[in-house]
Amino acid sequence: MTISPFIIFIVYIVGLVFFLFLSIVNLYHVLRFSFMRKVSIIMTAVYFGLIVVIVLVTLQLVSDVDWTQTWDISIDLPLVETSNEGFE
């Protein structure tokens, strides 16, 4: 069985979109229901700053991937032992 690295990238993008959705919900709740103090503003800025750094590092790492390569995933596990050693 072969798998393309593009499939893993698609799963990563779906997870990233879900994370982005939760981050926007988080930002809404911070802006709507929290006291606008320096701590909440600074922590929100740090949070979204880290998200930007993670996305930029991901883009840099993804640019080096050979997307035409396939990975061979084959695990040969014998489910039933076919030799008769020890039973003779």
Describe this structure in words.
The chain is mainly alpha-helical and 88 residues long. The protein has one domain. The protein has two helices and two strands. The chain has helices at residues 5-33, 38-62; strands at 2-3, 71-72. Strands 1-2 form a two-stranded antiparallel sheet. The longest helix has 29 residues, at 5-33. The protein starts with a strand and ends in a 16-residue tail after the last strand. The model has no long low-confidence stretch (mean pLDDT 82).
List keywords for this structure.
88 residues, mainly alpha, two-stranded antiparallel sheet, 2 helices, 61% helix, 5% strand, elongated
What is the string of helix and strand elements? EHHE
Instruction: Tell me the structural class.
Output: mainly alpha
> Structurally, how many domains make up the residues?
1
The share of residues in extended strands comes to: under 5%
Q: What's the Cα radius of gyration? A: 24 Å
How far apart the termini lie comes to 37 Å
What kind of sheet is the major sheet?
A: 2 strands, antiparallel
Mean pLDDT: 82
Across the major sheet, the strand order is 1-2
Shape summary:
elongated
Number of discrete helical segments: 2
Total number of strands: 2
The parts where pLDDT drops under 50 for at least 5 residues are none
The share of residues in helices is: 55-70%
